[in-house]
Write a structure and sequence with these properties.
367 residues; mainly alpha; 79% helix; globular
Length: 367
Amino acid sequence: METLKADVANGELKRVYRKQKGSFLRKGLIFAFASGISYGLFSAFLTVGEASGVWNDFWALPIAGTIIGYLLLCAIGSSLNDLISGIWCLVIAAMKGKMRDFLPALKSKPGLMIVVGGLCGGPIASTCYIVGLMMAGGIAAAVTALCTAVGAILSRILFKQKLNARMILGIFICFFAAVVLGGTTLGDVDAKSTIGMCIAFIAAIAWGVEGCIAGYGTIMVDYEIAITIRQLTSGFANLIVLVPVLCIIANATVNMSGVEGSTYLFFVGGALFSTALIWFVISAFFANPAYSLWYKGNSMCGTALGMVCNSMYAFWCPFFMMVLCGWIFGWEGYTLTPVQWLMALVEVFGIWVIAMNPLDVFRKKEA
């Protein structure tokens, strides 16, 4: 009788544990999915910001027609977005009484991991992504979606997180959908596009590394503190390292007609005091949950699941750009085709395949 009672008690404990574990996983998936939506929102507002105010003058300069000029302007926009997002993070953390945890977290090993993640995902990934877009077009976005697979594989190697055949199949389904959403066929690939795809793959690796190590670090650091560290690291690295280097290269290699005085002060100062800054404030507000919920989701449901749910940005980015840029502002070139809408549903199915076995829906649950 005592043995029977013990077995019943153990069975009840296991049932409660499985229920709590399932609930924790579902919450993590919701966080990761919401991060993709937020990523689409901040990308749309950032696009509007870089096409407003003084930015119209920037894009009209001769330097804007060169690769180095394009990289410089996009790096400035990225640095403004991340720095303002870091300020938003500081305000939110202060309001919640979490600022006392900031410095201890920054000095800790998990905090340093998040700093490394910010350096990988900020200057490195963003720069390579832009170069990939310049050389390969829309397919570069599909290539960067491989960051999901990179992060999942790294998490399997480093942290022994689960990665079975079904999850791998789901990853490939999502990647296939992202290729179509990118709007470029493999038949369009030439030597230049191939180089661009290889560079875009560097971005995929960098984002995969960020998702892997930062998600792991967020297990031990509050996710709102983690994103504060990440955004400030990325913003300052862009503004005080990458942008000055690009300015030096531009001064040495590009016709700088139209730029008066210091190249750095001309562009950065102009951007800071432009009326377009309000759009960067809005984009930075949405960048906060875009990255913080990504980190939080990865820490709760594992890098593989978290990054795949986040990769829905491949749909949410063009969707919100269509709404904001196409419908509201009336700009051309921001519409989704029926095939792209279909591929968005295919990508949702791919996420479903990774998160669970679809056959479980049709199986009778045991009492």
